[in-house]
From TrEMBL:
<dbReference type="InterPro" id="IPR005170">
    <property type="entry name" value="Transptr-assoc_dom"/>
</dbReference>
<dbReference type="GO" id="GO:0050660">
    <property type="term" value="F:flavin adenine dinucleotide binding"/>
</dbReference>
<feature type="domain" description="CNNM transmembrane">
    <location>
        <begin position="1"/>
        <end position="205"/>
    </location>
</feature>
<keyword id="KW-0472">Membrane</keyword>
<dbReference type="InterPro" id="IPR000644">
    <property type="entry name" value="CBS_dom"/>
</dbReference>
<keyword id="KW-1003">Cell membrane</keyword>
<keyword id="KW-0677">Repeat</keyword>
<dbReference type="InterPro" id="IPR051676">
    <property type="entry name" value="UPF0053_domain"/>
</dbReference>
<feature type="transmembrane region" description="Helical">
    <location>
        <begin position="104"/>
        <end position="126"/>
    </location>
</feature>
<dbReference type="Pfam" id="PF00571">
    <property type="entry name" value="CBS"/>
</dbReference>
<protein>
    <recommendedName>
        <fullName>CBS domain containing protein</fullName>
    </recommendedName>
</protein>
<feature type="domain" description="CBS">
    <location>
        <begin position="289"/>
        <end position="346"/>
    </location>
</feature>
<dbReference type="InterPro" id="IPR046342">
    <property type="entry name" value="CBS_dom_sf"/>
</dbReference>
<dbReference type="GO" id="GO:0005886">
    <property type="term" value="C:plasma membrane"/>
</dbReference>
<keyword id="KW-1133">Transmembrane helix</keyword>
<dbReference type="Pfam" id="PF01595">
    <property type="entry name" value="CNNM"/>
</dbReference>
<dbReference type="InterPro" id="IPR002550">
    <property type="entry name" value="CNNM"/>
</dbReference>
Length: 447
């Protein structure tokens, strides 16, 4: 064994490390970051970006890496056995007294273990870690060696990819492959949590991103103003009375109906009334100022409702149930509040729908708080693992377990917690007090 032997071994390990780093770097690189570098004039980034945007080229690139890894590993094993293995076998045969066959078998085993361990550590784990931590930089630095490899391995790539595609089709599996990162909303939510825990996102930023993801899964009925809380104007009332109600209302848009709230005819904007009065003419009737109203099903998801409101340039919409009955009112402010949190307003006060810790250790939660937020809050507090059920709010969840409309203050024991209905607005549960139960407490409802 000469001095060239260890040098060749090191070279083959470095070649393997190059292909490993190139594969993990290109798969892990964010196209947006590469595109930013390309716009700044980085030619390597522009070349890598073309590969990332072309599924077929990306597939060939990964195939070249895999061929390079396989060939370098096989050559390293064969070369090591032909040089290090033979030299070590002669050494063991001479100095250990083993039979020649046993000495060479032991030498082959030692050589295989040594080269495998060295290859895994230096040629696999280290370059993989570096590539995952610095994917964009590694992809740029390995671009030219991989481009030469693509030319060198082109016949093998076509042959092997074609053979693999043929076998996949025989198995009934699509041969179309894509190495792009495609994540479900749940996976994106997990990535946001990990970024927040890693210090890359602040709590408020991560919360806003998570709320944006929920728009496609939550229904508009979770954000709406319930029918019983809608402030409307009955056009059958005298004009002076209507103007007084407009003046006293903290809202700029009010639902307009005739006789019953179940028959809305549109909405009235306070600005239109002010302009009509400022024009100097006598205001005889408000009907001419009524604007058309968008009607949406209450089962619609928030993102779809937002799209329809933007398309129709509507700021508010009424929500109807499956029978066509008025169920609530939705405004753009409600959706923005869901994304950004509570918005201040100089004319009206909207108490935030958030859990509040009381001085005695209990928690006060609004009955209208969405059940998803309640479950997340409970998990963060380590209170309980709740069964969701069919309800969409805390009040609905309690009604499912009470099986009746509560009368006055009543309590419910469930999931190791004591729920006490603190305040009612008619039949609606306004606020709930929550406390931990002692281990000996049993489940049930108390009047």
């Amino acid at each position: 064994m000469t001095l060239a032997t260890p040098l060749i071994v090191v070279f083959l390990i470095l070649v393997n490390a190059l292909y490993v780093a190139a594969e993990f770097a290109l798969v892990g690189a964010r196209a947006t970051r590469v595109e930013q570098l390309a716009l700044e004039g980085n030619r390597l980034a522009a070349a890598v970006l073309q590969i990332l945007r072309d599924t077929q080229r990306l597939d060939h690139y990964i195939a070249a890496c895999q061929i390079g890894i396989t060939l370098s590993s096989l050559i390293l094993g064969a070369f090591g056995q032909a040089t290090i293995g033979i030299a070590l076998g002669v050494l063991l045969d001479t100095h250990t007294g083993l039979e020649p066959l046993s000495a060479h078998a032991l030498a082959a085993t030692i050589t295989l273990v040594f080269l495998t361990a060295t290859q895994v550590v230096l040629g696999e784990l280290i370059p993989k870690t570096i590539a995952l931590q610095y994917p964009v930089g590694t992809a740029l630095y390995t671009y030219w060696p991989l481009r030469w490899s693509l030319t060198l391995f082109a016949p093998f790539i076509r042959l092997l990819n074609g053979s693999g595609a043929l076998i996949l089709r025989r198995l009934g599996v699509s041969a179309d492959s894509s190495h792009r990162h495609i994540h479900a909303p749940e996976e994106i939510d997990l990535l946001i949590r990990e970024s927040r825990d890693g210090g890359l996102l602040e709590d408020r930023e991560s919360e806003r991103l998570r709320e944006a993801l929920q728009l496609g899964r939550h229904r508009v009925r979770q954000l709406m103003v319930p029918r019983r809380r809608i402030v409307g104007l009955d056009l059958s009332a005298p004009l002076d009375e209507l103007l007084e109600r407009l003046d006293a209302s903290p809202y700029t848009r009010l639902l307009v109906h005739e006789g019953s709230l179940d028959d809305p005819i549109g909405y009235l904007h306070v600005k239109d009334v002010a302009i009509a009065i400022a024009a100097g003419g006598r205001l005889e009737d408000l009907r001419a100022l009524v604007r058309p109203l968008l009607t949406l099903p209450s089962s619609l998801t928030i993102d779809r409702a937002l799209g329809q409101m933007r398309e129709r340039r509507a700021r508010i919409a009424i929500l109807v149930d499956e029978y066509g009955d008025l169920e609530g009112l939705l405004s753009l402010e409600d959706i923005i509040r869901e994304l950004l949190g509570e918005l201040s307003d100089e004319f009206k006060s909207n108490p935030a729908l958030k859990p509040v810790r009381l001085s005695d250790g209990r928690w006060r939660l609004p009955g209208r708080l969405p059940l998803d937020e309640v479950i997340d809050w409970a998990a963060n507090q380590g209170l309980s693992d709740w069964e969701r059920g069919e309800a969409e709010t805390l009040a609905g969840w309690l009604l499912e377990r009470l099986d009746a409309i509560p009368e006055g203050r009543c309590s419910l024991r469930s999931d190791g917690l004591l729920f006490e209905i603190e305040r009612l607005d008619g039949a609606a549960i306004e606020s709930v007090l929550i406390d931990r139960l002692q281990p000996a407490a049993e489940e049930g409802a108390d009047a």
